[in-house]
Amino acid sequence: MPDALVFALEEPQDRRFMQAAIRYAMRHVGRTGTNPSVATLIVRDDGDGRWPRIVGRGVTALGGRPHAETVALAEAGELARGATAYVTLEPCAHHGRTPPCSEALVRAGVARVVSAAADPDPRVDGKGHRMLIEGGVAVTPGVLAAEAARTIDGYLTRHRRGRPGITMKMALSRDGKIGVRGGGQVKITGPVSNAQTHLVRARHGAIVVGAGTVLEDDPRLDCRLPGMADRSPARIILDPNLRISPQMTVAQTARAVPTMVAAFEDADPARRAELAAAGVAFVACVADPDSGRVALPELLEDLAATGFTSLLVEGGAEIAASFLSAGLVDRLILIEGAIEIGEAGVAAPVDIATARERYQLLRQDVFGGDRWFEFACEGA
């Protein structure tokens, strides 16, 4: 067995700088492909009585390369020698298109590395720390690990469970309804909550809805924050029998925002051809033997294999209930609006009281007349 690693103790300033690194990592969440959005801060303390200062910073580049450590070291230059690097994920240890980040930190003369989340990728998983220590660098792991993990939970889930990380978001009326069946879209929440929802969209690789939502609401499913249209996630529509038409907004805009339909192999070939001509792509799916609906575990495994690490489920009651009953929700966001819908409303598959009992509350906010709750679900 390999020798046990000897780690350096946490120092008083470590949490402050790691908190800053975690905030910086949020800059590219959802935009780094199969790689996680990681941040690195190079901090120098010359021991002259001044506060330690950041001399280099980096975040995983768009698309996933270069890594945060490489960017931060380039900015720091010679000032990295003898400095401390704060990294939100264990530095990589494997050779790919570029040398390992752990090796780059050693070559740069960094004296100490403070890391947050552990990397479950078998090519890393402790090997990065070992490479640093063997190179003479002191290592302090696990600083604010849980907080850092939340910014890269999709990446972590993909490696640990073989599927993308799943966030489910639902807007609930004050009386626990999510809409009116056959009544089209119902405005449940206000503008501040809606803006927060678009920010959540921008941080996920794709939005997942069912065909019923598309047929009833004809939604755009994009990010409409000013200046962030290019951060609209892909759209995945669960439509096994191809009920949506090429005239729907998601099909009409498929060349601007990537749009995929999960359909059974034998679904209407003429409709498939029409949607394909509009720019819609397809992902094969199979039926669950009990319900006849899309078999979600198999679909999610396929989506992970194509590179998706995070999905935002915004579908209706049936889709939401399917993901919840299958234990496939890692993060649950419930926004309670001020309106009441009444008996004609569609009941939510989970309410705030039930979520409080079953899941860990991570965040609670008030946005105007709305209440926003975020929960971690079932081992997430």
Major β-sheet, in short? Answer: 9 strands, mixed
Low-confidence stretches: none
How many strand units?
A: 16
The general outline is globular
Helical content (DSSP H or I, runs of 4+): 25-40%
Question: So, the CATH homologous superfamily of the largest domain?
Answer: Dihydrofolate Reductase, subunit A
**CATH-defined topology of the largest domain:** Dihydrofolate Reductase, subunit A
* C-alpha Rg (nearest Å): 23 Å
Count the domains. 2
Under the CATH scheme, which class of the largest domain?
Alpha Beta
User: From the 3D coordinates, which CATH architecture of the largest domain would you assign?
Assistant: 3-Layer(aba) Sandwich
InterPro entries: APOBEC/CMP_deaminase_Zn-bd (IPR016192), CMP_dCMP_dom (IPR002125), Cytidine_deaminase-like (IPR016193), DHFR-like_dom_sf (IPR024072), Eubact_RibD (IPR004794), RibDG_C (IPR002734), Riboflavin_Biosynth_HTPR (IPR050765)
Family: In the C-terminal section; belongs to the HTP reductase family. In the N-terminal section; belongs to the cytidine and deoxycytidylate deaminase family.
Function: Converts 2,5-diamino-6-(ribosylamino)-4(3h)-pyrimidinone 5'-phosphate into 5-amino-6-(ribosylamino)-2,4(1h,3h)-pyrimidinedione 5'-phosphate.
GO molecular function, one term: zinc ion binding
List keywords for this structure.
alpha/beta, 380 residues, Cytidine_deaminase-like, nine-stranded mixed β-sheet, globular, 13 helices, RibDG_C, hydrolase, Cytidine Deaminase, domain 2, 5-amino-6-(5-phosphoribosylamino)uracil reductase activity, Dihydrofolate Reductase, subunit A
